Amino acid sequence: MRALLAGVAALALTAIPATAQDTAERPAVEEQIGGGGRPVGANWARSPVIAQHGMAATAHPLATQIALDVLKDGGSAVDAAIAANAALGLMEPTGNGIGGDLFAIIYDPATGELHGINGSGRSPQNQTLAQLREKLGEAEALPPYGALPITVPGTVDAWFAMHERFGRRSMAANLAPTISYAREGHPIAPVIGMYLARSLKAYSAREDQFDFSNARQVWFADGNAPEAGEIFRNPDLADTLEAIARDGRDAFYDNALTDGMIDYLQAQGSAFTRADFAGHSSEWVEPACVGYKDGYELCELPPNSQGFAALQMVNILKNIDLSQWERGSAEALHYMVEAKRLAYADVARFYADPDFAAIPAQLLGEDYGAQRFKLIDPAKATPEFTPGEIEVAPKLEGEGDTTYLTVVDGEGMMVSLIQSNYRGMGGGLVAPGTGFMFQDRGELFSLDPAHPNAYEPGKRPFHTIIPAFVKKDGQPYMTLGLMGGGMQPQGHVQVLVNIVDYGMNLQEAGDAARFNHDGGRQPTEALAGPSADPLGTLYVEPGIPAESIAQLRAMGHTVEVVDNGIMFGGYQAIARDPATRVLTGATEMRKDGQASGY
Questions:
Q1: Are residues 127 and 223 located together in one domain of the fold?
Q2: Which of 43, 156, 419, 583 is 20 to 30 Å from the Cα of 20, by its Cα?
Q3: How many domains are there within the chain?
Q4: Can you spell out the DSSP letters for 7-53?
Q5: How far apart are CA 546 and CA 521, in angstroms?
Q6: Within this chain, do residues 481 and 503 fall inside the same structural domain, yes or no?
Q7: DSSP category for residue 361
Q8: Where do the catalytic residues lie (predicted)?
Q9: Cα-flanking dihedrals φ and ψ of residue 280, to 5°?
């Protein structure tokens, strides 16, 4: 057998000899340990996926396959997205689940319209800021763990709202694959295994501050985190999803399951009542779009999400031709980072629940973008940017870590969906017998009563998760998302720039080395007083040239190189050619994900 294999290898090497011309055309390469070459495209990426009838891209291969099965069974892109999202709550619990919130942008080919849904939850109706402060004691911010940062989980309600308008299969059918995997088990993926280990370490270090016992029982029963390849089961989650499949939306928000959740949360110090859950509803909103260049428009959802930050960056960057410099050059990175800092200064000042705070329309104006662009010094980093001088209407009187996926069906319906428990797996609390963790999104409230994002009863906190949509020449073109807190708006813009300014395909645009600027004023800080970190730190991946890093430091940026991929998000995208209806999909190397079609 060994001789046969050697013969086959020799035949493979000699059957198609290289010509002198082939050899001459190949550039000399440095011999080193690293990745191999590719016949087409960049060596550091793989080919995008191309199909015609339907496509899904998610952070887990099994979730992608579930979405495709739904499409092949006649389900709409919304059916497939719901099914995949349910699966990710089981298979990627370190980023999402039914204890969290959901935002989505849906393109409806029947009407040619974009629809946005805000599925974020609110704070308890009967708890004031003063009462919350009393519970917090000397703390100057809401904690990331325990009962106090929990807001009403909005995901399940958003599922049913989307399904009512755009679903074709029953919700029971959409949830069935995840129920089966929860009972029978599924293998842990490599990146998820790593995140589970990190979560166990983080929660264990704070176990004296909140009740971690139920979470231990669900995910860490033997005292260890499940490892890659280990079969994991969650029968409690299967029971919860079966109740939702059987009894609908109210099974979660206004039923016996609700009472169990409320009893548990109140015992942990929460002010929630059943009325808070029963009264929750998602909101249909209109996405906003801003033109960039060459016919491309980026579309995002309005606050309380941070989607407008990406649009503000685009409005600033359209005033400079980034393609005059090489990708990864210090000049291009400098302008992008400064645009991010300018946009985020406004995020910290103006972004909040629009039911409680007026969001200035000027933020997305081209004139305002040009005005902000003029504040960028081309030669050096500005020590601190302040918010724009915009008149803010009086505060209104209020009434009463993440996963991204995208699905496109054969009729051209396109879904861009993002869902999250916020920090890692969430706040650490699991109601007995439910199998899911509550989010800690309320950590993003400000405790300054003068701030638009201040904690108030029945209010939605500032949200980091944002789905995106791209139009080209006025036509629906691409869904995209990039999970990862404050990385998301700057990630959306980096992907768009990679495609438009540097001619990358969808896969290359996501695999390319990224930056993540962290710091500056935050939406949780008080309005008055200095920012804790006005300049911030520019984190870059090793693919950014060393000479660019040195030049950026000379320009005054604080730059650190990080090579673990954790803080640079996780990207999925699908593009649809309006003429041929051919679909192109991508999912990046930093996650376990898969893009696939048929």
A1: yes
A2: 43
A3: 2
A4: HHHHHHHHSSPPPHHHHHHSPP----SS----SSS-TTS-PPEEESS
A5: 29
A6: yes
A7: G
A8: 402 (nucleophile)
A9: -70, 145
With beta carbons less than 8 A apart as the criterion, state whether 292 and 105 touch: no
Catalytic residue among 58, 155, 402, 406: 402
Q: Would you state the structure tokens that stand for residue 321, as one six-digit string?
A: 């031709």
Confirm whether 479 is a catalytic residue.
Answer: no
Rounded to an integer, what distance in angstroms lies between the CA atom of residue 304 and that of residue 230?
A: 38
Q: What is the pTM of this model?
A: 0.93
SS3 state of residue 499: helix
* Section 90-119 average pLDDT: 98
Segment 385-422, tens digit of pLDDT: 999 988 665 544 433 268 999 999 999 999 999 999 99
Say whether both 333 and 409 belong to one domain: no
Sign of the four-CA dihedral 257, 260, 262, 268: negative
Q: Which amino acid is located at 470 in the chain?
A: V
Q: Rounded CA gap, 309 and 330, in Å?
A: 22
Last residue of a domain, one of 444, 477, 501: 444
As a whole number of Å, the end-to-end CA separation of the chain is 38
Cα distances (angstroms) measured from residue 393 to each of 305, 355, 358, 397: 19, 13, 6, 12
d(CA 438, CA 525) in angstroms, rounded, equals 24
74 is in an annotated binding site: no
Do residues 386 and 419 share a domain?
Answer: no
Distance of CA 396 to the CA centre of its chain: 29
Domain co-membership, 145 together with 270: yes
Residue 534 in any domain: the answer is yes
- Regarding whether 214 and 276 lie in a shared domain, the answer is yes
Q: Are 120 and 463 in contact (CB under 8 A)?
A: yes
Answer for the pair 311, 352: CB distance below 8 angstroms, yes or no: no
Structure tokens at 21: 């011309």
Domain ranges, residue 394: 288-399+464-579
Q: Which residue has the tokens 């695999």?
A: 511
Q: E-assigned strands of 413-460?
A: 414-420
Shared domain for 222 and 333, answered yes or no, is no
Closest CA to 302 of 351, 267, 342: 351
Q: What is the CATH number of the domain that holds 355?
A: 1.10.246.130
Residue 39 lies in a domain: no
**Which residues in 196-333 belong to E strands, given as ranges?**
231-232, 283-285, 288-291, 296-300
Token pair for 141: 């911010």
Is residue 598 a part of any domain in this protein? Answer: no
- The bridge status of strand 283-285 relative to strand 113-119 is antiparallel
C-alpha span between 489 and 596 (Å, rounded): 25
Q: What is the DSSP letter of 305?
A: B
The amino acid that residue 295 corresponds to is G
Contact 410, 598 (CB under 8 A): no
Nearest to 479 by CA among 464, 466, 497, 462: 466
Residues 539-565 have pLDDT tens digits of 999 999 999 999 999 999 999 999 988
In one letter, which amino acid is 13? L
pLDDT tens digit sequence for 234-255 = 999 999 999 999 999 999 999 9
Give CA–CA dist 56/529, Å, rounded.
46
**Residues 227 and 238 placed together within one structural domain of the fold:** yes
- Answer whether residue 42 is part of any domain: no
